[in-house]
Every structure is written in C-alpha cells, then in structure tokens.
C-alpha cells in the first residue's frame, strides 16, 4: 500500500499496490496495450500506476506523456492521482482541451492571427440559422437540430453530404433531412462569418493544421511520445482521426475501455476502435480487468445476468465481473401504482437510509431522461431531504464561491506559508473572517444554508487537499481552485444526487435507485432498431454498476393517480426478477403492492385525473417541467404581480426558517411564481398549480390563500377543502394512453 503522506513511491511500490492484472497493465510501458476494463475494476488506478511506473523506471518522461479522456472531472482525478504518485508533470486533459491548447499555441505562429473564438453555445447560432432559412423551431426542436449538427460534425459529414449520408445510414433526423442540411449550412456560414468556432471545430481545425503543416505535426509528435486514452469505447471518428495524427510515431499507446458501457452512439461514439485495436496494432498486448472492487456480489451478479441477454458485437466481448467485496443486500424490484407514488416511495426509502447512517452524498436517484427529475425533486423536498441536480449549476460561478476565492487569493499573496495548524485551519480562518463560514451550519433559512454549504465544500476540499499534500501552502490550494474552476471540477455538496443515466457514467454511490423502468422509457420509445435497443440495455447496465451496496429498481404502472395501469416493466428486467413481480414487488390480495422488504405501500389520496398541461396564454402543450409548473410557455408574457410575488417569497422565507429547512422545501421558485401569476382564490384553484400536492395544501394552503386575499397568513387556520377526489371525466381530460 502506498503511503500518500510519506515520500513518493518507488517503482516497485507502485507495482505492489496492484492486483496481478493491473500489474500487467502497469508494466506494459512500451508499444501498444489494450485494457478491457469492466465497471469498478480499477481502470484509472491501473493506467495512472502504469504512467507512474513508466516515469519512475525512466521509460517515460512526464513532459512527453499525454493522457486524454472525455470529461474534465476524469482528467482532474487523473492529475490528482499522478501527483500523489510523484509524477505531477504529466498532461491529463480532455480531447478538446488538449486540441484547443495546441490550436491556440500554433495558430498565431502559423497564420499570424489568433485562433477563432470558441462559442459558449451552439443554440443561438442554430436559432439564427433556422430564421435565415425561413423556418420555425421551438426550443426542443432547436436542441434536436443542434444535436444533429454535432453528430454530423463528429462523424465528419459536411452539409452538402448530409442528405446522402442520412439515407445511406438509415438515420432518422429530427426533421426532413434536406431542411436539416440547409440549417447546418446556414449555421456554419453564420459561425465562420463571425470568426467563431464550436467544440467540433476545435478538433477539425487542429486536424487540418497537423495535416497541412508538416513542421507543426513533427513538433507535436516529438513533444508527446507516450499516450493513454481513457474511455476508449466512446471515441468518435473525428477524435480517432486526431489521435492517429498524434500517435503516428509514438513509443507507447495505451487504450482502456469497456464495450458494455458504450452509451453515447448518438454523438458518433463507437466501440469499433476499441474492439478492433489489436487488429490495427499488431502485437498489441490485451489485458482484461474483471475483479470488481466497487460493488457487492449481489449487484455484480445482477449486472452480469443483464448482459447474458445482450446481442450484437459489443455483447461478444462482454466481461464477466467477479466481485471482491463481502456479501450485501439483494437488489430490490419495486412496482408502484403511479409515478407520484413511485417518487414518494423512493423518497421514503431514501429517508430510511439516511436514518441508518448513509450519507446523502452517497445516495443517487437515476432516471432515463431529465424530464423525470421534477417528481423526485418535489418528493425529496417534501421530506426536507437535500438534493443536487447533477449538471444543473456550476459550482465555481456561485457568488459566495467567487467571493471566497477572492479572499483566499488575497490571503495567499500576503502569507509566506501555511501556519502551524496546517492548510485546512488557515483556509477555515480566512473564510470565517470574511466569507461567512462557521464551524456549524446555520439553522436558519434555505438560502443562508445553501451559501454555507458551498463555502463549507471549499473547507472540506482544503482538508482533502492537505491530506494528500501535507506540505501544501495556501498558494498551492489557490492554484488548485483555479485549475478546478477552469475545468469545472467542483467539490461534492452533501445532498442526494438526481441525475440521468448518461450523466451518472463514471460515478458511484453506496445506494442507487433506478426509477421509471418501463417499456417506452427504458428502452426509450424511439429506440427502434436492434442496435438502439442494445444500447438502452447497456445504459441500464451502467446504472446498475454505479451501486456499491444498495440497489433498488422500480417502475410505475400508470402516469398519474387514478390513471389506467397500462404500463409494463422494462423488458430488460425479464429473467432478473424471477419472471414476475413476486421476486421483487409482489401483489398481495387486499393490500396492494408490497416491496421485497415487506413494507406495504402507503396508498395515496385519489386525485383528479390530470390531462395534458397547456399554456394558459397561447394554448400550446407544455413539455418542460418549469413550464408545466407555471402553466405557460417561458417565452409567453408573464402577468405576475410583483408585489404579490415579493410577499409570497418573504412568507416562504419565514416559514422555511421556522421549519429549519431550505426554502424550496416549502415551495420551489417556479411554484411560487405560478401562485403569484394565478392568484388562486380557493383550495381547488391552488391545488391545480403544479407543485402543490396534498401535503403542501394541508400544511400551507390556508396561509397562501390568506396571503393572496390580502389577509394576515398567521391568522389563517381554516382547513383546506377536499380537492383530491376524482373529478368528473368532462371536467379534466385523462391523458392519452401513449403519453408518458
């Protein structure tokens, strides 16, 4: 075992920390090596120790070594591990970051001008292109068109070739292929006319520069002699073309991946480069990592069984994982009557885990699409459980974090080194004096608590940083923060993670809830070919292998309370739960669904049938969660009463302070805005606002109605009227059978 607190390890100590298969990887520092690494098998450990072993034995030079991966988070983790292993000079970057660095260095020297400016987002330019083509597209269509342009560029399809390529590949574009091609061409023209480039252009321009200029290519190839590529199953043709140019004369190339975790084919990613590596590189060593150190035998066994039903090329190369952990609880399969019941059931189980000592940050709720998150956000908020919606915010852009960084930079300039109590104590003192940090969290309102959590995350990061580098100074820590801010590698805030299955890739938790596992959702409705169905299966495999110990898989038979129970559990669960609900969530006569643990489900009050939500301004059907809450398009004019909104926000803040909970546990911002716009005069009208469920109506309904009516909410003690009985069919239409 390597001691991170002592001197850097020797080459032999680097090998001693590995299992036999990982050791084979580490010692393969010359030539080509392909690592087929299953989930949880320590692939990052293997490849970072390989780099460290190569450097410590003199085969590799840190400055001549480049490790590339697909996320800034993974690159940051790799750099941190290499620092701990005593080799801090190795470059670890994403494909785009490495290419951008080369482009910005060589472009001015080659052409005498700066490289084109990188656009923040394609969507505004796509919207402009749509308008130029005299077409119309809503926000969802703009996102689809943007994704299609990204696919075309990643697979090296030009606008003029797009129609033919779509026809040849059988791809189904978001709208008529000729229209997409026109938008694509107009987008490229608008972008280049402004001297801008997008992320795909970063790779394309770098490839063009290396192709055209022999002197530049030779300089890059002489600079980097050793390459490591993580998550190689996610490489697309554009990235592979760049990699071929980089590695043309490389001394060593190590790729690592798992074909069973290929879930990004919609971006052009393909596992064919991983699976064909040994044929393109004759004599390449191939090493399989199958010892799973992450998950219990029960979780690993379920993951293995799922892949026994897989078909296709990736399935032929599946790895049979072997858990190295002690026995754990069996995965649970739970069937619910409706989606709100599923969300409430999951929140209840999360609460139980928290009471048993599982940290909130070690629990995740994973779903197929981001649109499923709202119900779980609401259910967790109802129980006062903090949560983090992964990808919803940028940590280092928060005002309190920016202020803390300024304070730390100022202190670092005036400090000669860490004080006698160490770096963590110094950071705590600086943030306590001017950053609002206290050793104990505040008991007050949600915003105050949220700001404290952000600053406290920096304190915890300082503790972790100093543990890995005991000699580190405050200046070193400030440099670390700057590097993380550039890479958006934020420390973890202690809350339950809500994320899509795609966003969960590369992460792990003690407890994972896989929700919404129904036909039409997983596999998703538009997965209409065998290849797409198999990718959906791999997506579930990724979700299962995120769990270390506790794993719950659930589904709901209907969309809303009182709706027809026409849904079916995902076909991927066949053979995993004994062929019926009895092995997971059984149906007990007279009692309704019962979980594996024998806990009866709490029946929900019957509600009126909910029909499709339409904008109350223009009448368009609403798909996004924020729009459904407001009952109008975000683009439609708001009739909000600003004074009413202020009174509601003040009231919410006071109630949250009294309850000792974040403000969103009372009502979310969208719900408060909707109340201010609608100004309900009765409990029935209030209950029709998304986010006002039975619990919230009983708890806060009378106060809200009093506030809207201009009365003192503290004097409102009349019970809210019964509004959750089933409404007549002609009052509110039931949702159609094919609407999910």
UniProtKB/TrEMBL annotation:
Reactions performed catalytically: Couples ATP hydrolysis with the unwinding of duplex DNA by translocating in the 3'-5' direction; ATP + H2O = ADP + phosphate + H(+)
EC top class named in words: isomerase
Residues in UvrD-like helicase ATP-binding domain copies: 16-296
Cross-referenced InterPro entries: DExx_box_DNA_helicase_dom_sf (IPR013986), DNA_helicase_UvrD-like_C (IPR014017), DNA_helicase_UvrD/REP (IPR000212), HRDC-like_sf (IPR010997), HRDC_dom (IPR002121), HRDC_dom_sf (IPR044876), P-loop_NTPase (IPR027417), UvrD-like_ATP-bd (IPR014016)
Comp. bias regions, Low complexity: 582-592
Disordered: region residues: 582-607, 711-740
Protein EC: 5.6.2.4
SUPFAM superfamilies referenced in this protein's UniProt entry, alphabetically: HRDC-like, P-loop containing nucleoside triphosphate hydrolases
Superkingdom: Bacteria
PROSITE patterns assigned to the protein according to its UniProt record, in alphabetical order: HRDC, UVRD_HELICASE_ATP_BIND, UVRD_HELICASE_CTER
Keyword ATP-binding: yes
Acidic residues composition bias: residue spans: 728-740
PANTHER family tied to this protein: ATP-DEPENDENT DNA HELICASE UVRD2 (PTHR11070:SF69), UVRD / RECB / PCRA DNA HELICASE FAMILY MEMBER (PTHR11070)
Protein name: DNA 3'-5' helicase
